[in-house]
Fold this protein.
Amino acid sequence: MNDKKIIQKYSRVPEANDTNKIVVLDNQVLVSQTFDKFNAKVWTKENKIFLNVDIPAGLKLQKPVSLCFAALHKKVTQDINININLGKNSQAVFLSDCVLTGDEGVRHTCSLLLI
């Protein structure tokens, strides 16, 4: 089974193309798409994954934002840093999945800053 099929099988990330979703495999961004007029930027540098989300004041997201961080290969380090800026009277739902195969040497950590 290839990596994308493993992620689809074990995560709750919707397959539909009209959803807000970000998928990172090891330290590579596979999918980054948003549809509800908010800003999301995801990038990687070495073993670090950065996600900045900015939801403007008054915006109520119609669909959840699905996040999936997958570590499927040996000796992968994921240091995930998420910053979410919710504007006044804005509303959002985030669903986060982590797909880990249990291979030796996987290190997976996450920090979240909600403003």
